Amino acid sequence: MTGVEQIDRQIVRLLARNGRMSYTDLGKETGLSTSAVHQRVRRLEQRGIIKGYTAVLDYEALGLPLTAFVSIKPIDPSQPDDSPELLVDIPEIEACHSVAGDENYILKVRVASPSALEELLARIRAKANVSTRTIVVLSTPYEQRAPAI
Amino acid sequence: MTGVEQIDRQIVRLLARNGRMSYTDLGKETGLSTSAVHQRVRRLEQRGIIKGYTAVLDYEALGLPLTAFVSIKPIDPSQPDDSPELLVDIPEIEACHSVAGDENYILKVRVASPSALEELLARIRAKANVSTRTIVVLSTPYEQRAPAI
DNA sequence: GTTGAAAACCCCCCGAC
DNA sequence: GTCGGGGGGTTTTCAAC
Question: What's the CA angle centered on A99, arms A97 and A101, to 5 degrees?
Answer without folding.
Answer: 155
